[in-house]
Design goal:
Layout lengths: L1 H26 L17 H9 L1 E5 L10 E2 L2 E2 L7 H4 L4 H5 L12 H11 L3 E7 L25 H11 L3 E7 L15 H24 L5 E5 L4 H4 L2 H14 L4 E2 L45 E5 L20 H13 L2 E7 L9 H17 L17 E5 L5 E5 L7 E5 L5 E7 L8 E5 L2 E5 L9 E8 L14
Parallel strand pairs: 1-4, 1-9, 4-5, 5-6, 6-7, 8-9
Antiparallel strand pairs: 2-3, 10-11, 11-16, 12-15, 13-16, 14-15
Helix pairs in contact: 5-6, 5-11, 7-9, 10-11
This protein binds (2S,3S,4R,5S)-2-ethynyl-5-methylpyrrolidine-3,4-diol.
């Protein structure tokens, strides 16, 4: 008996070894010093909180909010926070906007309340955008709020106000800095290399300063990391990730920051996600049928309300502006594929939000209050996408149907994975039970609500696993 057992164990061990070595052979692992640090999704409480939050707001606020897309009488259609570049304004001239930085209507508490009422669980704040102007009194540059008529630590006020509302604060940080003489787009000479290493030290100092001054920060979202100079210094991006993680246990970092030994970004040369979540879905979303691979990792998308305006632009008539339902659709779309969504706001130079943004926040908030159960802490449901909308799955296994397209047939088709049955359906926010009819093997007709809700609505499905269809079905012979 003992001998047989030993032989079986040995056999199992040998198979395991040969299996793993053959798997390695087919993969051809490229050795990397600065590649991915996590295997699979992080499951610690900080990451789970990041994921469960699901809905965030982005705040793009800097000097660009003052001209609002207009320079010397000309209105530029491009993104307002890039105006310095569109209008080719030299840095010293651009920085004279600091003399006008006096946001008398800014009230961090009001901003935090707006986010809370919208149902946002976190906020991403531009601490410093490409222009280089800092919303905190940084010791390492003179281009900060401290040297404006305002003088206040606006970032500090925001961190406190949002945290007081129970909202997590994430920092947006642009590595590319148009105001810094040592910044380089690429490294072409020894002199470039020396200048750029000074720039990287400056950036490290600013990041350490942010992490020290505002220790409740939960996340760093890096931007402006696409230039050759960063790709040539992949080691530095790995160093920043490690440095912040040592200073702030649990902090999350976006994939945008990272480049590996070979200058590969977001995903390393072995195809592994770098940082803690993928952050490449900017103003676009993965296809809900073709791109299901995204459900394998954490990811966060962000979107603008007009077609492409992050900072305040005075003329929103220049591009299409999304309606509240279109924004809600994108939020649910992201969550249905296991991602987060961040909706952007670009406050004015005086510190107030434009009326369109206030109205949008209110409309989203109203919907989230009623149907948020199908968004917060929800994930990919594993059901085949249908035309009426999206599925999400809650923590207790319940499946939500978020209906955006009401059908004339008055029937919502649900196809379940093998062994999964629909037991019951109810309309969220009411006591109404919804009729469910099994129409074929693993197929159901779920009736639309008796009274048309005239807004996207949610049907909660009670499902059972390890149970086949009730009827006996025969497949067609073809
Ligand atoms: C390009 C670019 C930047 N990335 C977005 C998140 C905005 O900050 C935009 O200016």
């Amino acid at each position: 008996m003992k001998g047989t057992k030993r032989i079986i164990t040995l056999f199992a061990l040998l198979t395991a070894i040969s299996f793993s070595s053959s798997a390695q052979e087919t993969k051809k692992e490229i050795p990397l010093k600065y590649g991915a640090t996590n295997e699979g999704k992080r499951q610690d409480p900080a990451m789970q909180k990041f994921r469960d939050n699901r809905l965030g707001v982005f705040i793009h606020w800097g000097l660009y909010a003052i001209p609002g897309g207009e320079w010397n009488g000309k209105v530029y259609n491009g993104a307002a926070e890039w105006l310095k570049s569109w209008a080719k304004v030299p840095s010293d001239e651009w920085m004279q906007l600091m003399d006008q930085w006096n946001p008398t209507r800014f009230d961090a508490k009001k901003w935090a309340k707006t986010a809370k009422e919208m149902g946002a669980k976190y906020v991403k704040i531009t601490t410093k955008h490409h222009e280089g102007f800092c919303l905190w009194p940084s010791k390492y540059t003179s281009y900060t709020v401290a040297n404006t008529p305002c003088k206040r630590d606006l970032l500090g006020e925001m961190v406190k106000a949002y945290n007081d509302e129970g909202i997590d604060v994430h920092f947006y940080f642009s590595v590319m800095d148009w105001s810094h003489p040592d910044y380089r787009y690429s490294i072409k000479s020894a002199a470039d290399s020396i200048a750029f290493s000074r720039f990287l030290t400056f950036t490290d100092n600013q990041l350490k300063e942010l992490a020290t001054r505002y220790p409740t920060v939960k996340d760093f979202w890096f931007d402006g990391t696409w230039d050759a100079s960063i790709k040539q210094n992949g080691w530095w991006t790995a160093h920043v990730e490690q440095m912040l993680k040592e200073m702030l246990p649990g902090v999350t970092i976006n994939s945008h920051l990272r480049a590996d030994d070979n200058g590969k970004r977001h995903f390393d040369s072995n195809g592994r996600l770098m940082g803690d979540y993928e952050s490449g879905y900017e103003r676009r979303l993965p296809d809900p049928v073709k791109d299901l691979k995204v459900t394998q990792w954490d990811w966060e998308a962000c979107m603008t309300i007009p077609e492409n305006q992050w900072g305040y632009h005075k003329d929103w008539s220049l591009s299409y502006v999304k309606t509240p339902i279109e924004v809600i659709d994108r939020i649910v779309h992201a969550v249905s594929m296991g991602g987060n969504m961040v909706v952007n706001f670009g406050p004015k130079g005086d510190g107030d939000f434009r009326p369109e943004e206030k109205e949008l926040a209110t409309a989203i908030g109203k919907w989230m209050e009623r149907y948020g159960e199908a968004v917060y802490a929800c994930d990919y449901a594993g059901f085949e996408k249908q035309d009426w909308g999206y599925y999400t799955r809650g923590k207790n296994g319940e499946v939500y149907m978020i209906v955006f397209n009401q059908p004339y047939s008055k029937q919502l088709i649900v196809k379940t994975p093998k062994g999964v049955s629909v037991e019951k359906a109810s309309l969220m926010g009411t006591k109404e039970n919804i009729k469910v009819v099994e129409t074929a093997r693993n197929e159901y007709n779920v009736s639309v609500p008796k009274k048309n809700p005239s807004e996207p609505y949610v049907i909660r499905l009670q499902i059972q696993t390890n149970k086949g269809s009730k009827g006996s079905y025969r497949d067609a012979l073809t």
